[in-house]
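Quick start: read one record
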Amino acid sequence: MTRQESVSMVPPLFLDVHPDHFVLDMCAAPGSKTFQLLEIIHESSEPGSLPNGMVVANDVDYKRCNLLIHQTKRTCTTNLMVTNNEGQHFPSCNTKRTLSVASEINPHPIDQLLFDRVLCDVPCSGDGTLRKAPDIWRRWNSGSGNGLHSLQVVLAMRGLSLLKVGGRMIYSTCSMNPIEDEAVVAEILRRCGCSVELVDVSDKLPELIRRPGLTKWKVHDRGGWYRSYKDVPKSQRDGVLRSMFPSGKSDKDSTGGGNSYEEMAYISSEESAVEVCDLPLERCMRILPHDQNTGGFFIAVLHKVSPLPEFQEKLNHRRNSFTRNNINSSEKSSYEAVSDTVVTKPEEGAEEIVLEATVSENGFKPPEKESTCDEGIVELAQKLDDMGGKREVPSMQGKWKGLYPVVFLRDETVIDGIKTFYGIKDETFPLYGHLVTRNSDISSHGNVKRIYYVSKAVKDVLELNFAVGKPLKISSVGLKMFEKQSAKECEANCCSFRITSEGLPVILPHMTKQILYATMADFKNLLQHKSIKFLDFIHPQIGEKAAKLALGSCVMVLVDDDTQLGSEPVKLKTSTIAIGCWKGKASLTVMVTTVDCHQLIERLSDRSKEVEIAENCLKSAETA
């Protein structure tokens, strides 16, 4: 079980994820929403079968990535990849832009990493979480949202660039600030034009109390409140951007001048005109805390109708590859305590080209010709394209600092030994091409300590990542399936790799050897004593069969009664309970931690009570 605030579970529900979808969670830590997405991917799969889809969970902060890995490890999935890239620079892994000889020689099932669904739950000021984090009251200021606005826009635009045509993206925050919510969505729609539409989901989840998005708002800065961008003094325009306002226009745009932005309406007031956005922002949803006793949340559902405008695609590619968005240090410290994703500095040693920029008190300061100057960015993008075409080897081919590289296990001796020992057939559970390791040196199988299993979808993405120079910084991938035992516990005819507890549920349906079946009494007895001699089993036939197994790793499966102790394999169900063991010369030892043993004993005790109650009810019914 995983505890999560109910309102935080809403965004994945509107994402409409299918088991065959490629899903990207751009700012994933601590991982509760990733957990949800994985459940949806696996919900229609039979025990032992793997879905065709996958989830890529990304987070910029290394420490929070570790928390994400710890959370998602309990799903026991082979369809997850955890990456540690900056979301606004997340690689598309496009082989068409790569002149790598390897990619030309070895064609791959996919030539670009695009996703059917993208969850863009961006870093925010977190004022929607005030009820559970009241200390935010002391630290909150309008500069928090203003400083994050530019980052939120580029994150969302990058997500749309990585989205397939016909795909869906959720933009969400746990903030009620329109600068972080409606202003970002409006800017996205202006940049994308008709290629992206805001989806009306008011008829979905009718029991959810939500309010429509705002179409008018004011912007606050240290200089006061502003109703339109033309009211902002030039000295304040480094922190208050035109994209923060409902129209997204500057004072020059309002007087004409060939601007392509949508026309806007004005409502007269005594001081000045209040802008009203004519984009359908009412299709967004605001979940207010007092409506249904939850936290505050903002959600917008975006549908990619067609490819982004050619200019915007090129602009996004270069911005996301070579620019860095800066956040004031004071805002960052405030933000780190409340946000789901922490913004950090770029990785040391990573190749980058940075557009000249300065930082104000409220965030990103554009160059004097405005940060949204299309002509200047296009010229830079063209230069970078010309420069990139001359590189024969893509950047970032080296090992990421602090992480062992992901390497496919190609040692046929090891793979064949595992297949033979556990009786695994390629027709039902292929191992070749699906086993990876994180060791830096695998010149011989003796150096491999842990072996991970990846699904076909993850395998294809890994091969694509290798072909384009490994731009994905992979923190975790696949499911730990096998782990090497020490030489003292192994003999010449023994497979030195045991099955891990995490990998057991996935591989068990495909095993035909090294399996024992035990009743409740023997199963609990083994858990309590950790090790039992073959002669000490309550049912002698279990000890006899254990003695006949090959020395090494084996699995004990819990069955309901004595009649299932035969040699015929028992059909496995989702409720099947099994544990990994080690068969020695005269005894059987549990390969489960002490904590897991205690938890499993309690679980079995509850199960025994349920069975006893059911039997008593049946006897009473027969007597009546």
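The radius of gyration is 28 Å.
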